[in-house]
Amino acid sequence: MGKRSIPDVFLFFQVLLFAAAVPFLLRLKLSRVQTLLEPRVPSAASRERIDQITEYVDMAIRNGRPLVRPGCLTRGVTRYYFFRRNGLDVSLCFGMGQDKEEFVGHCWLVKDGVPFLEPRDARPLYAEMYRISATAHHGVMHSGKSELEQSRS
Fold it and tell me: What's the rounded Cα separation, in Å, for the pair 152 and 28?
């Protein structure tokens, strides 16, 4: 981790402990999860802070085993929680897709309408089933239609 300040070390341990709690958190109803993930009063986002959170989440997932489960769910929920508290306007999406003969789930962040910090675009591979965002107070079940198609219905 190199030489870090006390607030940096504190942030890393917050990230580590939150990431470890994600499996327990997601046993709750998604509407309750959304309430818990949204900040009461977000602070202003800085690019440096967002980069630091991204680094710490990746580090916690990489080095936190067996306390922290690897995968998109831990990464997405943890990033969403800390990004929202630092003023970044992102949404957390949950989707299902088919890989060979098996249905699989995926979780990803969306910023400005496109996947954020994803190695590849998840939208063609996964049908979005639920979204948590600051602008939507309730999760949205998607019909598979675009927003334009839905507005015409």
Answer: 34
pTM as predicted:
0.83
Judge whether residue 153 has pLDDT over 50. no
What is the 8-class DSSP label of residue 117? S
Among candidates 31, 18, 19, 39, which has minimal Cα distance to 134? 39
Q: Which of 145, 138, 132, 144 is nearest to 93 (CA)?
A: 132
Is 67 in contact with 21 (CB distance < 8 Å)?
Answer: no
Please state, as a whole number, how many other Cβ atoms lie within 10 Å of the Cβ of residue 24: 8
Instruction: Give the angle 57-64-87 at the CA atoms, nearest 5°.
Output: 20
DSSP code of residue 108: E
| 147, pLDDT greater than 50 | no
Q: How far apart are CA 57 and CA 10, in angstroms?
A: 13
